[in-house]
Inverse folding.
């Protein structure tokens, strides 16, 4: 087997391979998937000289550890965390050289939820419909990492990295999500719409790559019937009959039957991906552009 | 026809019937193919078509609501035949619901030409229409935790085939060996919106 690979020493709670996802197949029931904090994943790739489409690792809360079989450059971005190479502290959000056979450990998120690990050359697992992303809703792409798994690496680009460290936004103490109302805000009472855009919700621990679940005031409907299934967009805020609003993230279903009260601006979704359970959350109504 | 804005870059076009949604979907796919519509996703559903990734949704909304959509979708050339054994665990329940014998369920189902109205639920899962409304059936009161891949089921006005084992609440009337989804195949999905389908009873 080639040396251009890394083995998984500690998979962590949920570590997946992610790139920019597989948009364009929603009509076949295929979610777009891809890194939840896209800017953090893109930054990690830039720091190691990868192109924007290279696949990276996305960790969840408690990091992971990997052992490259060849010397590589890595960068860890997203949720701030302790980074070590063979137990020696290494920089976060900067290029780090990891010698062949050394263990790169990504620690528990100090704040935020998801850290991104780019490796020079990128992870080159088999793409499906043009993407290497793991889609947890429909099971496309590689399975989440397991201890002992081996991931192939691509050939690093000969370009030198021009960045040696890079600032990133801190994970939110309070998550602010700007929403445009609709398309189904008319399924709710005016009072429910007012509560939605004025009260403070909390990020629920039941959140995942499919949706950011929330706890807060119940949003009462005027329409009691069932909505025939309709197409869903990234950032759609669906309100199931018995629960708080759910903000659709990258692995969201392509169609759904619960009314969408509003849609979160795409620019706010990376912060949503880094909002830990219990984070206060407000939806701010904005006009359509 | 009503065009509802969805966020800043999408439009949910609502029509009054499944047939109109299929016709609108076919028309939008045609416009994209000829280059007059630039959009990332065209997602048909029961009574709507979602257009996502538009640069000027408001302009398109005005244009669509003023336009005439050809009433019937252009017919796909080929009919995909799915060999099916009518041996599903809910066949007797469906027969009772229809007020006919299980044999008659198989005869009616295999005698119907279906169209994939839309996809969803799982990659490669199509919602097929074609049965007259008198054959609508409710979902099972208690969904199954695991429905085997290849199960042919009914729910509401739709027929569907489970591409892989998954939980599900549809009334299962049969089984097919057809591979509905294979990501190594081009195209990966055997059924896509607009595909015509016939179920052929396996001897």
């Amino acid at each position: 087997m080639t040396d251009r690979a890394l083995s998984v020493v500690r998979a962590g709670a949920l570590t997946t391979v992610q790139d920019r996802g597989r948009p364009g197949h929603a009509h076949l029931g295929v979610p777009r998937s891809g890194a939840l904090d896209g800017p953090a994943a893109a930054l990690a790739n830039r720091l190691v000289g990868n192109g924007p489409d290279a696949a990276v690792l996305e960790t969840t809360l408690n990091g992971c550890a990997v052992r490259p079989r060849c010397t590589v450059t890595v960068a860890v971005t997203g949720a701030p965390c302790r980074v070590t190479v063979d137990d020696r502290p290494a920089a976060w959000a900067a290029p780090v050289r990891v010698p062949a056979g050394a263990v790169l450990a990504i620690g528990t998120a100090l704040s935020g939820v998801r850290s991104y690990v780019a490796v020079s050359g990128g992870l080159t697992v088999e793409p499906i419909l043009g993407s290497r992303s793991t889609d947890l809703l429909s099971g496309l792409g590689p399975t989440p990492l397991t201890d002992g798994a081996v991931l192939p690496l691509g050939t690093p680009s000969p370009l030198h990295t021009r960045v040696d460290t890079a600032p990133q936004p801190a994970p939110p103490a309070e998550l602010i999500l700007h929403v445009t109302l609709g398309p189904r805000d008319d399924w709710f009472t005016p009072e429910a719409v007012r509560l939605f855009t004025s009260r403070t919700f909390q990020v629920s621990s039941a959140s995942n790559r499919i949706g950011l679940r929330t706890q807060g005031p119940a949003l009462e409907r005027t329409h009691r019937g069932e909505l025939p299934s309709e197409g869903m967009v990234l950032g759609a805020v669906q309100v199931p009959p018995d629960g708080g609003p759910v903000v659709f993230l990258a692995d969201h279903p392509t169609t759904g039957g619960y009314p969408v009260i509003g849609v979160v601006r795409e620019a706010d979704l990376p912060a949503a991906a880094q909002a830990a359970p219990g984070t206060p959350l407000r939806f701010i109504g904005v006009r359509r552009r | 026809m009503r065009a509802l804005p969805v966020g800043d870059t999408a439009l949910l076009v609502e029509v009054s019937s499944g047939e109109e949604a299929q016709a609108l979907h076919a028309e939008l796919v045609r416009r994209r193919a000829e280059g007059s519509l630039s959009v990332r996703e065209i997602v048909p559903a029961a009574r709507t078509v979602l257009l996502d990734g538009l640069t000027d949704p408001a302009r398109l909304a005005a244009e669509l609501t003023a336009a005439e959509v050809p009433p019937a979708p252009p017919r796909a050339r080929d009919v995909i035949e799915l060999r099916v054994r009518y041996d599903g665990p809910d066949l007797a329940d469906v027969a009772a619901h229809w007020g006919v014998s299980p044999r008659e369920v198989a005869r009616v189902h295999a005698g119907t030409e279906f169209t994939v109205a839309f996809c969803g639920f799982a990659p490669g899962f199509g919602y097929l229409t074609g049965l007259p409304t008198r054959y609508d059936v409710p979902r099972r009161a208690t969904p199954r935790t695991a429905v085997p891949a290849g199960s042919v089921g009914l729910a509401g006005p739709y027929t569907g085939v489970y591409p892989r084992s998954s939980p599900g609440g549809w009334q299962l009337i049969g089984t097919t060996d057809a591979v509905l989804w294979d990501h190594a195949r081009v195209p990966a999905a055997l059924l896509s919106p607009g595909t015509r389908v016939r179920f052929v009873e396996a001897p």
Q: What stands out?
A: Chain B has a mean pLDDT of 94. Chain B touches chain A through 35 residues (CB under 8 Å).
